[in-house]
Amino acid sequence: MYKQKPSPNKRARQDSQKFERRNLILEEARHLFLKGSYESISMAALSKKSGLAKGTLYLYFKSKEELFLALYETHLEKWFGEVNAELEKMIHKKPADLNVIHLVVKLMVRSMKAHQDLARLLIILHTILEQNIKISRAIEFKLKLAKHLTRTGSLLETALKFPSSGEGAMLLLRANALIIGLWQMANPGPVVREALEHPEIRGMKFDFFEEFSQTYSALLSGLELNKTNAKRSYQS
Amino acid sequence: MYKQKPSPNKRARQDSQKFERRNLILEEARHLFLKGSYESISMAALSKKSGLAKGTLYLYFKSKEELFLALYETHLEKWFGEVNAELEKMIHKKPADLNVIHLVVKLMVRSMKAHQDLARLLIILHTILEQNIKISRAIEFKLKLAKHLTRTGSLLETALKFPSSGEGAMLLLRANALIIGLWQMANPGPVVREALEHPEIRGMKFDFFEEFSQTYSALLSGLELNKTNAKRSYQS
Amino acid sequence: MYKQKPSPNKRARQDSQKFERRNLILEEARHLFLKGSYESISMAALSKKSGLAKGTLYLYFKSKEELFLALYETHLEKWFGEVNAELEKMIHKKPADLNVIHLVVKLMVRSMKAHQDLARLLIILHTILEQNIKISRAIEFKLKLAKHLTRTGSLLETALKFPSSGEGAMLLLRANALIIGLWQMANPGPVVREALEHPEIRGMKFDFFEEFSQTYSALLSGLELNKTNAKRSYQS
Amino acid sequence: MYKQKPSPNKRARQDSQKFERRNLILEEARHLFLKGSYESISMAALSKKSGLAKGTLYLYFKSKEELFLALYETHLEKWFGEVNAELEKMIHKKPADLNVIHLVVKLMVRSMKAHQDLARLLIILHTILEQNIKISRAIEFKLKLAKHLTRTGSLLETALKFPSSGEGAMLLLRANALIIGLWQMANPGPVVREALEHPEIRGMKFDFFEEFSQTYSALLSGLELNKTNAKRSYQS
DNA sequence: AATGAATGAGGGTTCATTCAT
DNA sequence: CATGAATGAACCCTCATTCAT
Q1: pLDDT, tens digit, for every residue of B137-193?
Q2: I want to staple A218 with a disulfide (CB 3.0 to 4.6 A). Which of A194, B198, B222, D207 is the partner?
């Protein structure tokens, strides 16, 4: 009833081997994602690129969505790690510099430049990736995310000084929101990209990092100001 | 077995009739969009709801994307109109109130609450609607948008006082970005919505309007502050 | 976003044309079914054979199952028509012949020989065709079937004399059951067919029509006998 | 992320252990078959339920079909055993009762009520189970079946008196056919089941056992009658 | 202008079976 | 004997768009 072919691929029996294979898949997915959109990547193409059978992909990921969610998670993990390290460094140095906000913003811009995939994945996170996953996976993801937000948020609080305890996470979520929105606007599809060459609207083009930098900077300043004012009015 | 006579619709010969028919389609599209997502709305369903043939829709719109882009435009038009009116009122009153920012933010929240479709359409504007349109249409749309941004932006400049000439438009674009990001995060799909009932991550839920209000408010304050500082440092 | 090709096929605008096209599809389906099993027929293959696009099939039938159900229905319709005609002829002739049962059985065998597809479709009717259809379609089908059963059943009653009013339909359903079972047993798959060449079990092979003839004949005789006995015991 | 240690099952070295393991698998298959259809039972699910690896199942059965064929065979074995015992009892008693047919039919209904799985497996026997098996297995199965048919058939001949030597087996095959057909018709899928609640076709529902009882009874009576008539006409 | 029949690419997923370990 | 990772064929159906009528 069912045909089968010999299986030319080595079998990953050990957990470590399975982990490696999983990473291999994610790595190939990343490569494809660099060149094309999520929609343009078919599981068939990914399997071919990975040198694996289509079915094998489903041994490691429950669905295409969960696969890319895992890719996002991997990147995010790294990103948080790097940002944490830099924040800790910054905190240690105790920069006499008044303008910590500026430092923080620069830090974020730098780390995002190194992880542009992350921004692109973030764009589809809420509209696609989080749609076709098991609830258990959703909870797992959000739990992990929450932990990161808490940890890095708390570092942010220390570095920036002005936020109250617990507000750091919210600062990250707001950065998130800004990234989603600004990235989309700054990186339109080919049609709009060409349209924006039109002289009268050329002004609507902007560089994502430049714009994010300014906006997030202002946002943090504004929040700090609110805090100061609140304290002052409380003191008086 | 088969439907009765075809009974074709009366032809819209006059421009006014064509205009009306176009509006009818948009109105029905709006109705369907209230109940479901963009993807869930098929052109077939829309044609049936409109009492028109599928092909007829394409007499009025070049593609599904252009149709919803038109819907977006219609809403946006109204939204700008209302916001302009309110801004002008505010400017006229010359509120001695120092906190114009607060007033402006309240205004925006109020107008967005009245146009929630707009936010939902905005979410798909860059990722979907702007993808499959003719370049001429893209230019037309962007030109119109630019005009609105300039006009309303300039009103904003007057109301808020701190922005330099031409910066008002950017304030609107930043609001745009925040809306896109925050809306997606505040309104997840059913799976994540349920996942967020989990006790440990319940804290990640937030109300879009509340959050937008705070964030945009801080953003404006921050921008104002930067301006003041810049001037001060310039003066000194 | 979506490509399209010119549509080389003439359009069936009139109901009559649509009816013809529908029949064309059914006819091609019948051809394919002659050569292979239901499972072996892919909608893609059928569309190619029909010279139509895959999607076009779905304009005429909601699913593969409904398509073959329609094929079954068409055949059944014809079968009932022929059987009715023959029964009426038989009734008219008023065969002095005592053995009406024999005549009826011969009639059924003859009509079934002319509609062997019907038997093969009947095999999959309950296990496949009736599984993936809309309930409304199921009701429609069963209603039509009920009418046929009543009409032909009543002719059977007249011809055979012994059945009470309303029992004729049941005679047909019992024939149905016998056909389903005997056909499967008489026409095994290739493996079993070959196995039955083994000398010790060669005796298990049998001819469907021969066997059906004998069995149904005995069944009718038995029913008649029961009736007679019942009457007799009632009279005495 | 990954499951704990593999902890392979103890090896069944002795034949008795292998036999037990084989039975365990069949037993679990029976459990799953009680709750769902053949198609709905995946080898993966069965292996999990059995606490064995997927590959292990294939150490005991060559294919899914052979596995369920074995399940069928096991049941059939039991069924024949019980029926034989009852038939022998009946023969011993030498029931003065004229209506042995009635007794035999009651016996069969009783035994089938106790083995409803058997009927459900019978439905798929010819269309599925016998399709993907080795020819040697097919021969083995048919040989065993033939023996049973002969033995039980001969008991039937003795009990019923009217069949000639060798005809008993055919009586069983005819019962087989009736069961296949009537069971399918009496136990439709969910859609048709619901459709049959429709008032005008509610009459098409029937109870399998009731109907089988009447039909098989009539069939036997008819066969007996034919015999008597044949003899009589021969004598005269 | 209006119709609606025709198009056909496109793709994720399942699952019985194998065989290296 | 036992394992379970790997295989990969197979398939229905949707739906935006076109264009003959």
Answers
A1: 999 999 999 999 999 999 999 999 999 999 999 999 999 999 999 999 999 999 999
A2: B222
Q: What type of residue sits at position B131? A: Q
Confidence band of C197 (pLDDT split at 50, 70, 90): very high
Distance from CA of C230 to the nearest CA of B (A): 47
> Distance (Å, rounded) from C-alpha A236 to C-alpha A228?
12
Q: A86 and A23, same structural domain?
A: no
**Quick one: B32 and B72 in the same domain?**
no
Cβ of B221 near strand E (distance < 7 A) = no
A76/A119 same-domain check: yes
Q: How far is B191 from chain A (nearest CA, A)?
A: 6
Residue C84's domain is classified under what CATH number? 1.10.357.10
Tell which residue, D227, D94, D97, has the closest CA to residue D165.
D227
With beta carbons less than 8 A apart as the criterion, state whether D61 and D25 touch.
yes
Q: Given a cut of 50, is residue B3 above it in pLDDT?
A: no
pLDDT of residue A93: 85
Amino acid at C194: E
**Residue A63: both structure tokens together:** 């669905």
With tokens 């982990």, the residue in question is: A19
End residue of a domain, out of D18, D36, D60: D60
Mean pLDDT across the stretch A25-50?
Answer: 93
**Could you tell me if D188 lies within 8 Å of chain C, comparing CB atoms?**
yes
Most B CBs within 10 A among C4, C14, C15, C141, hence the mutation to make, goes to C15
Q: How far apart are CA C79 and CA C114, in angstroms?
A: 9
Chain A interface includes B230 (CB < 8 A): no
Angle at which helices B208-235 and B167-186 pack, to 10 degrees?
150
CATH number where D9 lies: 1.10.10
pLDDT at A3: 40
Regarding whether C216 and C108 lie in a shared domain, the answer is: yes
CA distance C201 to chain D (A): 6
Task: Give residue C202's domain range.
Answer: 64-235
- What is the DSSP annotation of chain B? ---S---PPPP--SHHHHHHHHHHHHHHHHHHHHHS-TTT--HHHHHHHHTS-HHHHHHH-SSHHHHHHHHHHHHHHHHHHHHHHHHHHHHHH----S-HHHHHHHHHHHHHHTTHHHHHHHHHIIIIITTSS-HHHHHHHHHHHHHHHHHHHHHHHHHH--SPTTHHHHHHHHHHHHHHHHHHHHS--HHHHHHTTSGGGGGG---HHHHHHHHHHHHHHHHHHHHHHHHHHHH-
Using C1' positions and the CA of A44, the closest nucleotide is E11
B227 plus B116 within the same structural domain: yes
Question: D156 with D213, same domain?
Answer: yes
Distance CA B169, CA D48 (A): 62
CB A142, CB B198: distance < 8 Å: yes
pLDDT-derived band at A9 (thresholds 50, 70, 90) equals: low
- pLDDT tens for A56-107 read 999 999 999 999 999 999 999 999 999 999 999 999 987 666 789 999 999 9
- Cβ atoms of B202 and B196 within 8 Å: the answer is yes
- Residues B32, B40: Cα–Cα separation, whole Å: 9
Partner residue opposite B139 with nearest CB, options A182, A198, A221: A198
Nucleotide nearest A1, CA–C1', reads E16
Q: Look at B142 and A218 and tell me if their CB atoms are within 8 Å.
A: no
Total structural domains within chain B: 2
- How far is C104 from C29, CA to CA, in rounded Å? 31
Verify that B93 and B118 share a domain, yes or no: yes
Asked if D56 and D132 sit in the same domain, the reply is no
User: Which nucleotide's C1' atom has the smallest distance to the CA of B41?
Assistant: F15
Which of B2, B131, B132 is facing C15, going by the closest CB pair? B2
Q: Which residues contact D198 (CB under 8 A, 6 or more apart)?
A: C139, C142, C143
Q: Would you say C222 and D218 are in contact if contact means Cβ atoms under 8 Å apart?
A: yes
